[in-house]
């Protein structure tokens, strides 16, 4: 998948996150859904903070400050990138899950703008970056800049499914 098509897919997914902010009831946004689990605010916190951190990894790869590595991806990462999704209940690393906050809608909107802006700034340098300059992902191993962008795309779409599950819980399903 080209950088341009990845960027376009990601932009469309982020537009969906933004659209949902307008339709999720304020009374539900920070509430724990029936049956437990993360609130909408916690999902937005996780996805936006993790993706912003992933953009830092892209920047480091593009600047050549990553680890130089010519090894292929491990089998779990190869599978995820091949099918373009995580297993349905893929758990975030404990270190990442511990950083989740229950943010409000306004902060979510601001972080979405920040994320989109950073993607716009970094997309042009990804193709120019070395495929051997890599930064370690907590679960997937060493990734180069393009792989990090692909991860952001997969990760962002994955959490749309989680938002759908939260919505069903609030509707009694």
UniProtKB/TrEMBL annotation:
<dbReference type="InterPro" id="IPR024775">
    <property type="entry name" value="DinB-like"/>
</dbReference>
<feature type="domain" description="DinB-like">
    <location>
        <begin position="10"/>
        <end position="163"/>
    </location>
</feature>
<dbReference type="InterPro" id="IPR034660">
    <property type="entry name" value="DinB/YfiT-like"/>
</dbReference>
<dbReference type="Pfam" id="PF12867">
    <property type="entry name" value="DinB_2"/>
</dbReference>
<protein>
    <submittedName>
        <fullName>DinB family protein</fullName>
    </submittedName>
</protein>
